[in-house]
Amino acid sequence: MTRILYSLCGRDESRPFSPHCWKVSLALAHKGLDFIEKPVAFTEIPKLEGGFSRTVPILKDGDRLVRDSFDIALYLEDTYPDRPTLFGGEGGKALSRLVEGFSQTLIHPVLTKIAVKDIHDMLAEPDQVYFRESREARLGQTLEAFSAAREAALADLSLRLEPVRHTLKLQPFIGGATPLFADYILFGALQWARVTTGLALLPDEDPVALWFGRCLDLHGGMGRAVA
After folding, report:
1. Which positions are tagged coiled coil (predicted)?
2. pLDDT value at residue 2
């Protein structure tokens, strides 16, 4: 049986960048499940699997289609209970919900300021038009104006990561001694910025940067495969 993960890319299919798709890639690897990744452009997503979803990731597992990164993780946990757990029980699911909320409400907005113009520049022309129109309508200003304060956004990112920094002084992963889906959620956000901007988001010695490096090395260095 062939599993297919539809993910997001720009002009270069070898550089998938969606934070939500990176979560799922690592979750599949964590479970030891083989899959084929098929990165697509923004404007191609509505054509996938008969219009199944307006967004990626989409996982096709045999005849089953699943959308949304958290729902995919829950599906993998329930469908493959004999494989390494993504949550370690109900408490781990609750932890992952907390990390997802933290990431999407506090980390994604500042990463958008850092990366939005770079994302636009990675896209093919039809997607650039779509991306600019949709994001500028959402942001209420041009991409250039929104991303003008990148240095301030980088400093803000460091401050917002302080709760994670505190946790990682006590344990190597958010999930404890070993990574769980909670780690992949925040990793996906920072990998999104890494792939799209190429910036060093944090000092090398920062506990979050060290944790991010450990996550990049997981599953045969899957995260480092995209430089």
Report:
1. none
2. 87
Where helices occur in 66-206 by DSSP H, the ranges are 69-79, 90-102, 108-122, 125-139, 143-146, 150-160, 162-168, 181-197
Q: How many CB atoms sit inside 10 A of residue 98's CB?
A: 13
Going from the C-alpha of 114 to that of each of 27, 151, 179, 197, the distances in angstroms are 26, 8, 27, 8
d(CA 86, CA 210): 21
pLDDT average, residue stretch 116-130: 97
User: How far, in Å, CA of 175 to CA of 87, rounded?
Assistant: 8
64 three-class SS: strand
What amino acid is encoded at 23 in this protein? K
- Do 96 and 54 reside in the same domain of the chain? no
d(CA 21, CA 166): 27
Q: What pLDDT shows up at residue 158?
A: 97
Q: Based on the fold, state whether residues 106 and 204 are members of the same structural domain.
A: yes
- The 10s digit of each residue's pLDDT in 158-195 is 999 999 999 999 999 999 999 999 999 999 999 999 99
Cα–Cα distance for residue pair 29/137, rounded to 1 Å: 37
In terms of pTM, does the model score above 0.85? yes
CATH code of the domain covering residue 100: 1.20.1050.10
Question: 104 lies in a domain?
Answer: yes
